[in-house]
Specification:
Elements (H helix, E strand, L loop, with lengths): L4 E2 L5 E2 L11 H10 L13 H14 L4 H9 L4 H4 L4 H4 L3 H19 L5 H23 L21 H27 L5 H20 L5 H11 L1 H4 L3
Helix pairs in contact: 1-8, 2-3, 2-7, 2-8, 3-8, 8-9, 9-10
Length: 237
């Protein structure tokens, strides 16, 4: 038997020995839009992709950094390759937890440039747990201890076509990846060569263009702002 899975894009990927260059956001968006939250024990279909979108939007509404917003969108990306394991069972699987953490760190480094700090992990876990409170209530009629956490976004548990969730996930990915890369470039611009800056600007422009093509309402504005902000580099001067 093979030691790899075949992803939506046709990529052969070994989750236990992940090669970063084989990680594709299109695979993540597609798979997570088709994986059901709660191991399928829900009143109606609600995907992991929808949950990740909600986490990203909540992170944005709480005023977190673009990097943490993008991390929130990607925080369950390992499930694209390893599937999901319910929390009570996962606690008994130390090797699974080790492999999952390693894969997530690889994913974060690939898309964010580095693994998450302890502070970022804590903030992300809080968002994840807060949304879990409402997922349990709305999808399972399950009450949780304590008061309902305050959310800053409206929640909808309406069943959506997986194609719509996949498209929304990619919209947000390309926008937040552009924003995150722009933030990083602004911090490094004084110690980076003009050639490297132009390469990074082209990457960011491509992210915004893809977000615009997918219909994100803010993408064109971000594209225009970037072109103005870095006009002297784009002109080659």
């Amino acid at each position: 038997m093979s030691d790899y899975i075949t992803t939506y894009s046709g990529t052969h990927f070994d989750p236990t020995n992940p090669e970063p260059e084989k990680i594709q956001v299109t695979d993540i968006a597609h798979a997570l839009s088709l994986i059901c939250r709660g191991n399928g024990h829900v009143k109606t279909f609600f995907s992991v992709g929808q949950h990740c979108i909600n986490c990203a939007l909540e992170a944005e509404a709480r005023g977190y950094s673009n990097r943490l917003i993008l991390a929130s969108l990607l925080h369950d990306a390992s499930e694209c390759y390893m599937s999901d394991v319910p929390r009570p069972f996962k606690k008994t699987l130390p090797e699974y937890q080790k492999q999952e953490k390693h894969l997530l760190d690889v994913i974060y480094r690939w898309f964010l440039g580095s693994a998450l700090s302890d502070e970022e992990q804590t903030a992300l876990k809080q968002i994840d747990d807060d949304l879990l409170f409402y997922d349990l209530k709305e999808l399972l009629n399950e009450s949780s201890d304590g008061e309902a956490p305050e959310l800053h976004i409206p929640l909808s548990y309406e069943v959506q076509p997986f194609e719509a969730v996949e498209r929304k996930y990619l919209q947000l990915y390309y926008l937040y990846q552009g924003n995150t890369s722009c933030d990083l470039l602004l911090r490094k611009i004084k110690v980076t060569s003009n050639h490297a800056i132009r390469q990074q600007i082209q990457f960011i422009l491509n992210c915004y263009r893809k977000a615009a093509e997918l219909g994100h309402p803010d993408a064109v504005r971000c594209l225009n702002q970037l072109e103005v902000k870095f006009s002297r580099f784009l002109s080659g001067k």
